[in-house]
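Continued from yesterday's entry.
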Amino acid sequence: MDIEEYYKILDISNRRIRENEYTTRRFLLDKIDWRDRLICISGSRGCGKTTMVLQHIRSAFEGDYDKALYVSLDNLWFSTHSFPELADIHYKNGGTHIFLDEVHYLKDWQIIIKNLYDEYPKLKIVYTGSSLLRIDYESGDLSRRQVTYNLPGLSFREYLCFEKIIDVKAVGLEDLLSNHKKIAEKIIKDKPILRYFTDYLTRGYYPFYKEVYAGYEQRLSQITNQILESDYPAVENINYSTVQKIKKMLFILAQSCPQTPKMTELYAQLETDRNQGLKMLYILDRANLLNILSSEKTSLKNMARPDKIYCDNPNIMYSLTENVKVGTKRETFFLNQLKASGHEVLYPSKGDFIVDEKYLFEVGGKDKSFEQIKDIPDCFLAIDDVEIGRGNKIPLWMFGLLY
């Protein structure tokens, strides 16, 4: 690669940085310690990883973008050019940072990044990749060298900020449980919060909702196809038939959420066995398309039959099925926001969710009672259709304030 070729790539990088005009910031942007030498940012397509990285570069390198090279590795240019060679030229020409987008499209990316880390000790590397990546299980031993962050979709709190309705800080779970009435009273102030909440559940989880209107659900369907047809094959060696079975599984389960179908019948319908069926199920969970709820902790090495299966978020529900049940939508939102904010959520023997092995929750409408979980310590109702709660009855929308 000659220097002129490098300058062309650098010019493209600079243009992407300059033309990124987003001003609304995701919560993770200020949580990342950008001083670390190796940073991984994972997350589903459409959650805003690229925009967030470009926002950081534009702010941190203003007036000297040449030091920070941004490249998207799904670019066809890399089918005939060597990325390590590009990184070497960038470093030798005064580059101090490299930002790699869609890293899973680079063959042997783990080993390449490890070698760059070891061979260029003054070079800082930030890379983004699909939530399908299994960093701790990949070759290249990156887990000891890097700091990993995950970017979920927008919380309801972030959605309110994006819509310039109110700018409120995230609330910790324990603070929410203790002070929800006081917090709600400060936020509401004649704002139609329930109307905004309905809009968010329908089309507010992915930041690109501001770019599309009538085509939002179609865009979500396209993203689902990209995840399963492009991202997944880039991460693991699978064939076309397996991809089609996974897509079929997703659509079958989306129609029956949150009930767990008879798994044996599902595997037969997909013409697969239990082991392969469970693997496909957990792939959909890793891809942030489904949310698996189990009564016990599970891991990649210990996959068990789930107790309940949900879509990952209500927006996904609307893109996959026309029959969105209000109760399912409520539970899907609650599970999504608690897990996205870093809390452990399991399926209890009574109630809907047990959070952090301590707090028991039932989710329902404003007439929901404690009948099913009475006499149990640390139990709460997450109730929809109310702006302000009382006691252990907390408005459902407030669980969107956790991140």
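--- second protein ---
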Amino acid sequence: MKNVIVILGPTASGKTEASIELSELIDCEIISADSRQIYRKLDIGTAKPTNEEQQKVKHHFIDILNLDEYYSAGIFGEQADILIHEIFSKNKMPLIVGGSGLYIKALCEGLFEEDIKYNVDEVRENLTKKYIEQGIDSLYNELKSIDIDSAELYKDKNPRRILRALEYYHATGNSFSKAHLEKKEEKKFETGYFGIYFDRDELYKRINLRAEMMWESGLETETQKILGMGYSPELNSLNTVGYKECIAYLNGDITRERAIELTKQNTRRYAKRQMTWFRKNKDIIWLEGGNGRAIAENIFNGMNFHS
């Protein structure tokens, strides 16, 4: 069975650096598992690999969507699975790099109901608002349009069950009923998980520094250009740490200093949620961060490479 490598970790942990270093040791192509780097225009705030880094090794799933296009972990899992086998056909190693735990799990293990419970805060908020404003009939009609089997099952219009089914669909891109029917497919590859860690204080220092650098590097100008193109600030793609704080500043809701501080704070909270997700996976081999080359060599020595 062929091998796939995953380099994961919280934001600002140095995943890109380690992946570029590893690409110098093995013949690989990188699959980005980042739910925000998929969008065009979101460059500074998502810390995309630089053009130089992307020229060193082929990257996939970066800049593939416009800001108003729908995407999900389920779609990513299906598309990236096809890509993995294309990379295998070239006798290359697929290297999955990112911090979006749901995307990684969708690709390497498959999605199940329990996978969404840590990832539906925004979805639940929007659906709850719709329920309060428009009532259960509106949600039920939406469910009928996307998942008729679940709608038939919930004819009593139980709000909790309808919300749950809609949450699952919006979080994963798959219908709730289909998820119950499908059995987990046996993957045709083995996954080696490698995580990069720092102690909390050091990680938070890195996060704070990155946030400051993003603002100094033109996050404000980038956000202004996006809004100037007519994109709604309410888009899911712009509900991203850094951009949402910048939009609040541009709208005059908060000061620039407060926006930068909130960017730091919310990024730290995001990193904490990422680690909560990753800790569920007991197969991850954790490597100390700080030296991308050392991490790459540890991964190289820890994997049994074959084509």
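The first strand starts at residue 2 and ends at 8. DSSP finds 14 helices and six strands in the chain. Will compare against the first tomorrow.
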